[in-house]
Design a protein that fits this description.
Order of helices and strands: HEEEEEEEEEE
Radius of gyration: 29 Å
Distance between the termini: 112 Å
Number of helices: 1
Largest sheet: 5 strands, mixed
Helix content: under 10%
Number of strands: 10
CATH topology of one domain: Immunoglobulin-like
Length: about 160
């Protein structure tokens, strides 16, 4: 006895469908995107905003890994601080640097490097009564970025 024959018709779009199916399979093998941090937003406290100098002018600063960038600051000497605010971007989100190191001290003021919210803030406070130029350098970790700051203190 002979088995019946079945005729199968293959549409001309079959190679295209096979290619699309292969692409869909390969897309499933792609590495998933890095998860974004899901914790609470960084906190910003009122104390972090108190004590600023009445006059503080700072040009925007964008640190670059393993490079030194220049920054300028003009501050009035009323015993308040003037700040440079920077952050690094990790997985699309802003986060503070792990540490800031003062590699060249200011001669006529104090420098305080700390975290405020998702930023690293570099505060400069001139000594009472001083007017004139000053400068300091800060290295940021882990990127090795450095900021060389030229300060003009006004009365």
């Amino acid at each position: 006895m002979q088995s019946p024959r079945v005729a199968v018709s293959v549409p001309s779009s079959a190679p295209r469908l096979a290619a699309l199916a292969l692409l869909a399979l390969l897309a499933g093998c792609a590495a998933p995107p890095k998860p974004r941090p899901t914790g609470p937003a960084p906190r910003l406290y009122a104390i972090d905003l108190q004590g600023a100098a009445k006059f503080c002018k700072v040009a925007p600063v964008k640190p670059q890994a393993d490079k030194t960038v220049a920054a300028t600051m003009t501050v009035g000497n009323d015993r308040g601080w003037c700040a440079i605010t920077v952050h690094r971007t990790e997985a699309g989100a802003a986060e503070p640097y792990a540490a800031g190191l003062l590699t060249a001290r200011a001669e006529h003021g104090r420098v305080y490097i700390h975290t405020v919210g998702a930023d690293t803030r570099i505060d400069y406070t001139p000594v009472a009564g001083y007017a004139g130029p000053d400068q300091f350098t800060v290295s940021l970790l882990p990127d090795g970025a450095a900021i060389q700051v030229s300060v003009t203190v006004q009365r």
